[in-house]
Structures are given as C-alpha cells and as structure tokens.
Amino acid sequence: MNTPHDQSQRDRFIHELERNFSVVASAGSGKTRAITDRIVALAQHPRAAEWLPSLVVVTYTNRAAAEMQQRARQSILEAGVKLEVINAFNRAFFGTIHSLCLKLLRQHGHYLGLPAQLEHLNEDDDAALWTEFVQSSTAIGAGLDPEQRRALLRLTPARRLLDLGRRGHITEAVPAPGPFPKFDFEPIYAFVPKKVSQVTAARVQEAMRRWETAWEGDDFVGALPGCKCAPLKPIWEAAIVPIVEWRRCAALHVAAEISQAYREFRLGRGVMTFSDQIALAAELLRHPEAAQRIRAKQYRVILDEAQDTDPTQFDVLLEVARPVEATGPWPSEETHPPLPGHFCMVGDFQQSIYGARADLAHYRRVHQAFLRTGAGEEVIFSVTFRLDRAGIEFANAVFPIVLHGLERQVPYVALYPRPTAFPGQIVRFDPKAGPEIIAERALKNKEYWEANNLAHWLREVGLEKLRASSWREVALLCPRTRWLPPLRAALRSVGLKAQVQSERSINGDSPAYAWFTALATVLAEPRNGFEIVGVLREIFGLSDHDLAAFSEGYGVRFHLTAPTGRGGPVAEKINLLVALREQARSLPLFSAMEEMVRVTQLRDRLLSLPADEYEGLGFELEELLTKAATAEAAKGTLENFAAELQSEFHAARNVRGALPDAIQIISGHKSKGSEWEAVIIPFFARGAKTQSPVYPRLLRDPRSAATIAAMESSDVDGDLKTAVALQEQQELERLLYVALTRAKHTLVLVDDRALFTGKKGLPERSQASRLRCGQGEENAAAFERLPTKLSACTETAEHHAQKAIVRSQEMILPLPTLPAKALKASRERAAVFLKRNPSALAEAALAEADPAAYVAAARQASSAPNAGQRYGTWWHNFVEVLDWSAPVASWDRTFETHLAGSPDPDRSHHDWALLRTQLTSDSDLTRLLAGPGTLAHAEMPFLWAMSERECLDGIIDLAVYDRQAHRWTILDWKTNRVPPSRSHYLPQLSAYWKAASEMLHTPVAAGLYITATGQWLPYEESELAGAWDALSRNSAALTEALEDDRGD
To answer: Does the keyword ATP-binding apply (predicted)?
Structure first.
C-alpha cells in the first residue's frame, strides 16, 4: 500500500473547492503540502482567474506565508497553467492576520474616520504616549454614576484601573454594573473556631471589622482583607461574593472605557499597535456599508495554525467570507455562515499551547458551529510524515491517557505511519544518579550534573546510533528557557558545538545591541545623564563609589557638552566621550559609529565576555555597523539612528539560522513547527516552578468564557483558581505532546526520576508527571519498557546517504535548449532586467558612507598606475589553475611557471609563502581547500533571478564543496589592503552568499583570504544574512554597484 491511510480525507480537502473544511492536522501530517495542493487545484479550475485574486492565505508568521506562497507558485508553474492564471495568483494575499487587517484598514478605514497614514507603535515602547494620555485624561470611570464611581475608587486605586485599561485590549463595550451591593459579614463574626484556629480566625474577624468600619466613612479603604484561616474560608468567600463580583464588573467596565479611549488617543496621534489593527478591522466589519463592500470581493480564506487564533481574529476572518447580506456576528447568529468554499481552517487542538494569546475554547466552538450548522465539514489528517513507527506506537500508547477529552481537555487523535516509515527508536536514558547527587539539596548542582552526564553520553554514542545525518539534526528540548544554558555549557565542555534558541530574546538582551545603543544615545543626547551614568558603569566598568565621588550629589555633572576640569577615572572617561562626540558630529553616520567602536574599544569589551553565555557578539556588532551604513544611505542622522535603536530595544531578536554541526537547544514552545532527526528530552522529571500572577489582570473563566477583571488575588475565588490551574496544566500536557512529536527517527527521554523525585513522589509540574510516569501511574509500565540503548539502523543510514546524493545532484541544474524565438526575445528585452554585480558592492557601500572619499578614490583609480589591478589579475590567474588536491611540489611548480608573468615578483614570493604555509599546516584553510572529500571550482560564474525584473550575476573566485558535510564555502581573494572594518567587503560577500544559498539549496559559508597578511577571514552566517537583509531593502546601494569591479 503506497497511499497514506487518510488519503481520501486529503483528496476531499484538496479537490472539493466549493466546500468549507475544518482540518484537524496532527503533528507532521503535511498540512502545508495539503494547503498548497488546494491552491494549485484552485489554479487549475476553469474559474481560476476569477477566484485567485480573492484568495486570502493567513499564516502565523510572514516567513511561513512567504514559504507557502513560493511553494504554491512553483507548483502552479509546474502545472503549466495559463499566463492569466499566474497573473491572478500574483494578486492573492499571503500573510499574517495583522497584515490582512492593515490591508483592510488602508482600503476601507475612511468608514471609521481613520487617518490616511498610521505608523506602527510597539506596545512595549509607549511610555511617553501613555504619560501624555494620562495627563490629558480628566476623569476615570466617566460611564459610572457618581455613587458607583465613588465606591469603585474607594475599593481600587486609580492607578490599577489605568494599568488594566492600558494592557487589557478590551475591544467591546462592557455593561455598567448595578448599584453597590449590600453585604453582611455577620456569618464571619459569628464563626466559632476550634482551638487550633482561634488565633488566625480572630485576626481575620478583626481585620474585617476594621474594613467595615472604614467603609462607613468616606476615605479610601482598599481591597478586602484576606483569609488565612482554612475552616473560616468558605464562610468568608460566601460573605464577600457580592462585593467581589460588583468590583470585578465595575473594574471591567472602566478598563474597557480606558482601553477604548487610549486607542482613540493613539489614532489621534497617528499611531496604532498590532492589537489596534485587529480591533479596528473587527469594527470595520461591523460597519454596514464597509462590511458589504469587503464581502463583495468574495474572499476565499485559508487559515493556517487555527489553534493559535484569538476570538477577535476569528471574527475578522469569518466575517470577510460571509455573504454580502449577512448581519450580526457568526456563529452567534447562525444565519448566513461563510459562503461554501470560502473558508477553510487548518489546525490541531492537541497543539494549542499559546493560551496567553489564543483561545482554544473559542476555536472549538467555531469548529463545532461549522459541523452543527452544516456550514463546513471536518476532515482529519492522521498520517504523520515525520515520526517513524516506534515514535507513533509510543505516542498512541501513552497520550490517550493524557489527552483524554475530559474536563475541557482535548481528545487524542491516533497517529498512523506513512507508507515508507522507518523503524525508528524511543530510548530511555538513565544517567545513573548516585546517592550523593540524589541527596544534593541544591537544584542547580543536580541540573549541571545531569547536563554533564548527558553531554558525555551524546559524544560517546555519536551520530550513527542517534540515526542523525549531522549534529545540526539533533535537538534538546526543555519546557523552560532558563534550563537551556547549562546544557550548552556541558556540550561545549566535551567538544560538541551547541546553539541555544530562545523565543523570549529581545534585542536589548544582547550586550552588543545594548552597549552600542547606549553609546549612540549619549552621543546624540549629550545631556542624558541617566544613559551617561549607565555607559560609565556598564561599559567602562566604573564603580558606584567613583561615580558618586565625581557627582557629589549633582547629577547635572554627567553631560557631554564640554570637557570637565575635574580629575579621576570618571572625568577621564567623560572627556573621552566629549572628544568622541565632537569628532562624530563632523563625520558621516557610518564613520562616526566606526570611530565610536574604535575609541571605546567596544569590540574588545564585548569579546571579553564569556563566550559560553554570549554567542556571536562580534558578528552582532558588525550587523549594527551595517545598520548604520543603511541608515546613512537613507540620509539618517545620528539623532534619528539612536532613536531607531532605542525604539527597537524591546523588539524580538531576529531568528538565527541553525549553525552548521551545532546541536540545537530550544524551548518546547519554540520547537513547534520544527522537526529534527533526533530529539532528546532532558530534565524529564524536574519540576517547573511557576510565578505568582501579577495583578491587576484580565483572565477568561475556562468554565463560561467570561472575561474577569481581577484587581487582587481575592477576586479569584477557589473554584475559579482551580479551573484556571487545570487549564494551565492541560496546556502543559499539550506542550508535552508537541515536544514528543518533533523527532523523525530517534527520541531520547532522560529518565532522571531518581534524581528529582521527592518524598511526595514526582514533582507535579514535571514532564514525567504529565505523562503519568510516576510509580503506579497509568503510563509507568510503558515508560519502563522502553529500551535503554541506542542502535544504528542501516535502512535509515541508507536513506541519509541517498538524500545526500540527491542534494548534490540538485546542485547541478541542466540548462534546457531554448528555441531561437525565445533567444531572440531575451536579447531584445535584456535591457528590461536590472543587473546586480556583487563584486562592486564594497564600492557602493563606500559611496554611501562617504561620497567625498568615494569620488577621491575614483579619481585616484582613474589617474594612478594600475599596478595593483594587474597584480590582482595575475594572482587570480595563478590560483585559478592550482590543483588543490595535488601534492605541495605540484603547487610550487605551478607557482614558478606563473611567476614570470607577475608585475611584482617580490610580492608574489611573499604572498605565496604565506598561502603555502597556511596550506601545509593544520589550519582551517587547509581543511577547507585540501580536506578529504572536497571539490573546488575556481572562477565559478552564476546568474540568479532575484525577482521577476532583477537578476544578480557574478563570478565567485573559489567555490569549495565538502561532500561529507554537504556544504559549500565561497572564498574571495583580496590582494589589496583590507580596511580596518570587516564590513567593507561584507555587502559583496553577502550577495555571493545569498545567490549561492538560493541556487544550491544547501548551507553556504563565505569568507575572505587576504594575500598580504595570509589571513583567512570567514563571515558568520548571521552576519551575511543581516548584511543582505539591509542591502536588499536599499535599491540605491544596489544601483551604485552596477559597475564592474576594478580588481582586488
């Protein structure tokens, strides 16, 4: 049987284009392929030219949208559809829900009276705007009557109500509460405790009497006293219910007013947040005329990752797919559901792990509404194309106990293997904890002990037994990001490369970004004493004592407007910054930032930090310098650049690609959507601590879906607290399902129960506890039966080898024979295409950074003798014919043969001696050029289609393919002097790297070889990606690079 078990379900979703579907797609079930196939089916339909422009594909990230759009476009092109269909597809929407909402607002926002242009506001960077809003507000709770308002403000500080409204994102009006209720505390006072509870009961009773007495006055009284007397607590909760419920209702009403007023204030200032985009789009679709115009476009919506969609986002997507005459929200109003074939959603209840921003209960209600009303049908993708048979059997054995479908938990969907599934293996690794470490009380010591044992074990078993093709295909998953660093340190200590991927990282977490931003800020804002003190303290390492002695209580002394005449280390650094600022004011932005890095020794300071804790700081610094060059090209000033850095300080850091041959260490949440050939779950029995909730907060009652404003912990009664705790526990159980379904061939569970089990058994919040692996629990026997040793698999190894062969063959693309008519047309239209020559990008960067210097250099090049160029040409001709796999003697003979043609024989002898020394020693360059299994291509030309109108062509000096690592490396010979900044040639190399990566579909590295110094200078992948990202968005820089390189 060569077809998947669920192929009939897949065929329905792909080909029944006039039906709505809710697809339940299990882990690794190929949902992206199914969505792409449905889009291709739309393109092959006779009405494709009509349907495709109204196609709306919504994904969770822009990156996922771009990938899906590219895959769909490629499949449509391969299907051979008409040109008009391709043009129609190019008008389809692929993007996030926020992008879609922004598109609707730009087209129809005038119905809401919105400004024509609205800028984005980061919600974490709205302090100044919020302060302005608060200062302009005249009253809080204007929608309440005077008595209600007075009662609420006596119970709750105004600041807490403001905080709730600021972050609450309440999109709908909330009814006002009734009159303040009467209350009766007599049952509390009448309670007679037993002897053991007399003291605590008396304290509660006395506190309640004081509160009641204070309430009879007019002053602020605050929250009700708590109750720490367990026997009294049920009576206490019943007595305070009227007050608690009234305050929750009143606080929610006022918070909604504040939230709406702050949104209108933001719009009045021409800015909006991501939450505003969703709320305003939902409001737009409640506007009768606007909704009709939007629905008239007959959008066909395909929603991916439906389980991560919140209720308001669902409202937007459902409403755009309904008929023009629809009124009222669906599914609350069950008439006029989405048109047939106009709404499909793909998700997985089992992978709903973002309860803080999504709403699983609402997703389930929408799903059931489709089935109940007949507006859509359910299809289930149960065949996984990821897990091998052992992984499937283990999941099917243990997860029905965990995902049981009871008490609002989702039911488990059994997995089925693909027809070509390999055996796979699930292994229980016992680190054999001895009595000494078991008895250790410090949790940190146990953590490091397990990490070190696991690291040594991984090095010992190796890739073959893990059934992985490279270390990059091995991942360690943890439920807590703070557990990741010890694993990285342990792996590195045994010689294994490791890379931590954290989902919570912001730009400011990096010392490179934080320190660079702080320095740029003080140069732009010379009277910003707060930042100046931070720079002196954090970057220059000056003590608080020295800073206090310098200021003597006068903070105004910390400024950079003029040198200080005082003495000491603080004055010395301030004067250094003053001189730097004066110099920076007369320099172009990029040069000023380079000088800032040099004068403050920022690079050396960053590289002195522990490498185990801070990765790639030098490369991040280069990215920031590239950012400065880009800002300068856009005519940015130092002040604007510093403000831009500050505004992005709290933004999420860009996702970094996996480093070659580095084990990936990643959190369970971030692992969603990814897969590896081998996955290890460390700290399996370790309990995860939880943080106490921060009040005030909005929470959704899992039992009723009602929104509750909890100002204090007393606003969350025992039953609600239990329901919320159960909901959180169930989400963590689903997170465990996600983690245990990421492995293709090998899953290793670290059996550290002996290490972390206490007197009361397994920690409640451990993964082992969630899987029910404790003594006597339902899955304990299945867990114990797992094998304890890894084994190699010939079938899997052959699969890896075959994939490697296919990849290498894909790199050699046969060029088809073109008909004469096509060749003639291409010659006639060649001028339409924009040619990009990456070898001139260094000159383009210089032209942008310092136009005067560029003009001077150009004049000098045109008038000076071209000896440097002739030497560069000679060197390239010489190394082009070198056989890198030949003996050293052969290289020497080649050199002697070509020496006669050198314009500078002494220099040739010098440069060849340096290169020869490199190649005959155990250096990185030797392993690159002359290692086993390497294949070198000199002067390799390329032509890459950047877009439909632009192409990039050039010649790579030396491209080396490592057949064992399946990796290419680009080497660029530089025979002239390299500027102090490595960023000089970064634009050129980033263009080579990007073109090769896109064309070869395999990891690519790039670097420079400096003939004058004998240095091999590789670039980091993140450095290249950052440079290309900046360059690709700057057409001016690319245009400057069109002229040919003059030889280097």
So the answer is: yes
Is the Cβ–Cβ distance between 344 and 384 less than 8 Å?
no
Alpha-carbon distance of 992 to 960, in angstroms, equals 13
Query: Does 202 carry a binding-site annotation?
Result: no
Distance CA 64, CA 70 (A): 10
Helices (H), 90-126: 97-108
Kindly give the residue spans of alpha helices, DSSP state H, lying in 608-680.
617-633, 638-647, 668-671
30 marked ligand binding residue: yes
The one-letter code for the residue type at 952 is L
Asked if residue 743 belongs to a known ligand binding site, the reply is: no
Q: How far is CA 483 from CA 51, 502, 688, in A?
A: 49, 11, 10
DSSP 739-776: HTT-EEEEEEEE--HHHH-BTTBS-TTSHHHHTT-STT
- Output Rg (C-alpha) for the chain, integer angstroms: 33
Residue 1047 counted as an annotated binding residue: no
722 annotated as ligand-binding:
no
Residue 49 pLDDT grade (very low, low, confident, very high; cuts 50, 70, 90): very high
For tokens 């129809």, what's the residue?
108
pLDDT digits (tens, 9 = 90+) for 905-939: 888 998 998 898 888 887 888 888 877 778 888 88
Is pLDDT of 799 > 60? yes
Instruction: Return the percentage of the chain with pLDDT > 90, whole number.
Output: 53
Ramachandran area for residue 823 (φ above 0: left; ψ -120 to 50: alpha; else beta): alpha
User: Is 27 marked as binding a ligand?
Assistant: yes
Q: Could you tell me if 346 and 303 are in contact, meaning their C-beta atoms sit under 8 angstroms apart? A: yes
Instruction: Return the number of other C-beta atoms located less than 10 Å from residue 494's C-beta.
Output: 15
